[in-house]
Design a protein that fits this description.
- The chain is of the alpha+beta class.
- The chain folds into two domains: 269 residues, 2-methylcitrate dehydratase PrpD, CATH 1.10.4100; 137 residues, 2-methylcitrate dehydratase PrpD (60s Ribosomal Protein L30, Chain: A).
- It contains 20 helices and seven strands.
- The chain has a four-stranded mixed β-sheet.
- β6 and β7 form a beta hairpin.
- The longest helix has 21 residues.
- It is globular.
């Protein structure tokens, strides 16, 4: 692994393209490197994971809306939509938009946390849609997904967007563009131009994840999806891009991140080195912001030590800077204590999440967020007794470069009314690679079966699992059917309506 230094240069001193980060990414994407067997297996697991959370969210309003927009863009040789029969095809960018929204809606697929946040499986919907429309094989699809993961995880490791209040799709969009370029085996020059276009158009603010969080949280990665596909298409037609997009005098580093003095270290594999970044990411067992995963498991463990939550005087969660300021009381968001807040807001309130997990001893992707659940008087009372504080030790562990030392949990102190204090801590979620019960292939299958119970016919589940089991060997014709179909009566708004412009 090589650390590439990226910084801002005056226009008169622009570095040659071979030294620019976008070119390094384009080289990474277009180099012929065999895919390790365990990496290919994890790609298949993440396809199953995406399908599980997408079908689980299939009738939620944002997913319905995105699907309606895609239904208005049929294309005979296009891509499939989650839940819709495989003989119906749609324009790749619109299929990716709808499928990307479905994958993101429950906030329950994979994650990678370092200098910034990411959900790398957001790369899969555009790659699958383009593969289906362009007639690519399973091996091509795997190659593209592996490259996209490698680049997004490199960016998230080296460059923080959050401290400048920029949304993390600014790292997702160029990774998607590079992955598509890798899958289509485009020239390095073309991928370089596509990456730069993708970076330029995808910088947005974090207001989508602040205060009263709306359905745009689910749409944001899907928005990057469309931007990336369109960027690649333009580059394939010979169009050029703002350059150098990272190092330029008026670049995103200079005016959106650390300014003219910006300097970052981005890890890149050496030439010929296997691409294994996907194995650094981890999926979610619970439908909630990743930094709450370990704390949900900790709540389950601590509840056995408490006779009644009514006996609690207060709860203090000692955790990392990121957890405290993003989903904790450090955010200063009053909405995080509002029982009438949106699901998206409750999903980003560790105070709410810990209270419900402590009371219920379970976490459900629907029932844990209902208005009735959030408005229980005893829950509201407990919720408002919970606060977070930043603990420097947990911040250091959050940013550790050694994967085995990284931690995303915290230490919880529960003070009872009788003066007793109960303390416990958990570094990583049970399902994490270094957790008590690391997610394995059968866990992905179980997650799919749980989230899609009563929706997917048994033979359709078998068909989909069989395709994923030999993903790297699939023909283009088989890739075109790599979708989960549902009975027509189950998918709400499976027919196009005229409610919008399209």
């Amino acid at each position: 692994m090589n650390l590439h230094t990226v910084r801002v240069f005056p226009s008169a001193d622009t570095p040659p393209r071979e030294e620019q980060l976008a070119w390094k990414f384009a080289e990474l994407a277009t180099e012929e490197v065999p895919v390790d067997a365990d990496v290919a297996e994890m790609v298949a697991n993440r396809l199953i994971d995406n399908a599980a959370v997408a079908i689980g969210a299939i009738n939620r309003l944002p997913v319905q809306t995105a699907r309606q927009q895609a239904l208005a863009h049929p294309r005979r040789d296009g891509a499939t939509l989650f839940g819709i029969a495989n003989d119906q095809k749609f324009c790749a960018e619109w299929a990716a938009w709808a499928n990307g929204t479905a994958v993101r809606e429950l906030d329950m697929h994979d994650t990678f946390l370092a200098a910034d946040y990411s959900h790398p499986a957001d790369n899969i919907p555009p790659l699958l849609a383009v593969a289906q429309q362009c007639g690519r094989s399973g091996a091509d699809l795997v190659r593209g997904i592996v490259a996209a993961y490698e680049i997004q995880i490199a960016l998230v490791t080296g460059i923080c967007l959050h401290k400048h209040k920029k949304d993390h799709i600014a790292h997702l969009c160029p990774a998607q563009a590079a992955g598509i370029g890798a899958m289509l085996r485009l020239p390095t020059e073309t991928v370089y131009q596509a990456i730069q276009q993708a970076v330029h158009v995808s910088f947005t603010t974090r207001q989508s994840r602040k205060g009263e969080i709306s359905s745009w949280k689910a749409y944001a990665p899907a928005h990057a999806v469309k931007l990336a596909i369109e960027a690649v298409d333009r580059a394939m037609r010979g169009e050029r891009s703002p350059s150098p997009i990272y190092e330029g005098e008026d670049s995103v580093l200079a005016y959106m991140l650390d300014g003219p003095q910006s300097e970052y270290q981005v890890p890149l594999p050496e030439p010929g080195e296997p691409r294994r970044a996907i194995l650094q990411s981890y999926t979610k067992e619970h439908s909630a912001e990743y930094q709450s995963q370990a704390l949900i498991d900790l709540a389950f463990r601590m509840r056995s030590k408490i006779k009644s939550t009514a006996d609690i005087e207060r709860i203090v969660i000692h955790t990392s800077h990121h957890t405290h300021f993003v989903i904790g009381t450090g955010s200063g968001d009053p909405q995080k204590f509002d029982p009438h807040a949106s699901r998206e807001t409750l999903d980003h309130s560790i105070m709410y999440i810990f209270a419900v997990a402590l009371e219920d001893g379970r976490w459900h992707h629907v029932e844990s967020y209902t208005p009735e659940r959030a408005n229980r008087p005893e829950t509201v009372a407990l919720w408002r007794k919970i606060s977070t504080v930043e603990d420097p030790e947990w911040t250091v562990r959050y940013h550790a470069t050694d994967p085995s030392a990284k931690a995303f949990g915290g230490r919880v102190e529960i003070e009872l009314k009788n003066g007793e204090t109960i303390t416990d801590e958990l570094a990583v979620a049970n399902a994490h690679s270094f957790g008590e019960k690391p997610f394995a292939h059968n866990d992905y299958l179980h997650k799919f079966s749980t989230l899609t119970e009563g929706m997917v016919a048994a033979d359709e589940q078998v068909r989909f699992f069989e395709l994923t089991s030999r993903l790297s060997d699939l023909t283009p014709q088989e890739v075109a059917t790599l979708n989960v179909q549902l009975p027509v009566e189950i998918v709400e708004s499976s027919e196009r309506n005229q409610a919008g412009i399209f």
